[in-house]
Amino acid sequence: MRAFFIRLVLIVLAVLFQVNFLNILFSGEIRIDILSLVVLSWVIVASFEEIWLWIVALGVLSDLILFDKVGVNVIFFISIAYAISFFSRRFLIERKLEGILVVVLFVTFSFVFLDLGRMFVSENLSFIDTYIRFKEAYSSWKVILIQNILNILFFYVVYFFINKIEKNIERYKNKVNIIS
Amino acid sequence: MLKKIKGRKIFKTALVVFLFVFIIAINPYNIFNKTRAVIFTFTYPVQKSFSTMANKTYAFVETIGSIGDFKRENEYLMKENLRLRSEIAKLKDVARENEELRKQLEILPKEKFDMVASSVTARDLYRGNNWIVIDKGEKDGIKKDMAVVVADGVFVGKIEEVFYAHSRIIPITSPNINVNATTVETGAIGVVNGKYGLGILLDMVLQTDYLKVGDQIVTSEISQHIPRGLLIGKIEEIYPSEGYLFQRATVISPIDLSKLRMVFVIKNEK
Hints:
CATH class of one domain in chain B: Mainly Beta
Helix content of chain A: over 70%
Order of helices and strands of chain B: HHHHHEEEEEEEEEEEE
Strand content of chain B: 25-35%
Distance between the termini of chain B: 73 Å
Distance between the termini of chain A: 15 Å
CATH architecture of one domain in chain B: Beta Barrel
Helix content of chain B: 25-40%
Shape of chain B: globular
Number of strands of chain A: 0
CATH topology of one domain in chain B: Thrombin, subunit H
Oligomer: heterodimer
Structural class of chain A: mainly alpha
Largest sheet of chain B: 6 strands, antiparallel, barrel
Strand order of the largest sheet of chain B: 1-2-5-4-3-12
Number of strands of chain B: 12
Number of helices of chain A: 7
Shape of chain A: globular
C-alpha cells in the first residue's frame, strides 16, 4: 500500500512539475521533457514487469493534464519503456564512460521519438507539417546541444530520486516479508 | 504456453498499444473531460505553487542575467531619455491622429473593457503555441470564447475550455483558432489563425481588397464575443493562396507568447 501511494505521488508530481514548472520556466526554444526521463529512469532502476502499469498511469495522467487525446502519451511511454528495458540489459548504466554514452543515446532517442510522436499524433499534423514543425524545433545546433545537456543533467537528478524511492520501497517490502 | 506468452514484455506492450489505439480512435472526450476537470480541481494548490515557483525562478534568473548590463543600460537610458523627449512632441500629434482613426473605425479603447487579470499557470510543451492555462475560471465569471489580451490591448487568444478555477486559452499562434480580422489602414477583411507555432496567418482576404506590408491587423466586429479593435499584429509578407482565389499575409505579433506571464480576459464591454 505504501509503495502504491509513493508511486502515485511520484507520477502526479512529475506531470505537474512538467506542465506547471518546466513548461513555464523553459518556455523558449529549449525544452525539458521530464516525463520521458521518469520513464527512462524507472525502467533502468526497477524492472519493466514491476512498473509497466505505472508507466500506463503516468501516460494517462499526462494525456489528461496536457490536453492530449488519452492514449497518445501512454503508447509512446510504453514503447520507450520496452525499448529501454530491451537495451538496458545489454548496457550497464553504472559503467562510467560507457554508461554516460548510453544515457546520452537513450535521452536523445526518447526525447526525439516523443517529440515527433506528439507532433504527428496528438496535434493531427500532416507529414509535411510535422516535417516543418520538426525542422523549426531542431533548426539550431546550439539549441539542440543545450537541450540535450540539460536533459541529461535532469536525467541524473531524476535517476537519483527514483533510485532512492525504489530502494526505499524494496527495503519496506523486505521488512514486511520478514515480519509476515 | 498461454501463461508464458502473457508474461512476456512484448505481449504487455502490444496489449497496451492496441488498447489505447482503440481508445484514441473512439476518443470519448466527454468522459475524459470530466476526469480532467476533477484532476484540475484537486491538484489546484500544487499547480499554483509550481507555477508561482517557476515565475519567481524566471524573474530571478532574468535579474541575475541583467546585472552585468546595468551600467551599459544606464548610459543607454540617459541617451534614450533625450531622444524620447523629442519624440513626445511628435507623438502628441500622432495621438490626435490615432484618436481620429479610432473614431472612424469605431475601435474601443481598452478602458472600456471589463477585464479580469490572471496569471499563466501551465502551458504545453511547444512554447505555449497550442494552449495556455490561466488561474481564473468559472468562479471568476470566465466563459468560453472570451477574448484574452495583454495589458496594452494586444489580442493573444480566446478561452477554449473553462474549469472551476482554471481556463484553457487557445493562443493566436494555434492552427485551431479562427478570428475575424481587418486591416486598420485599408479595411481589408480576413480570417486570422496560427501556423503550427510558426507565426500568424491572415487568410481569406479577397483579391479585390488591398493589403500593405506594415499595415496593422485588428479584430473585426464580425467575431462573436471578441470586441472589435484588439491589435493582432502587423503584416510582414503578402502572397496569394493556392489557386489565386484569396490573398494571404504573414502577420507578426508585437508580443512573444513564450514570455507571457500575465493576461487579461475581457468579460464584456463597459
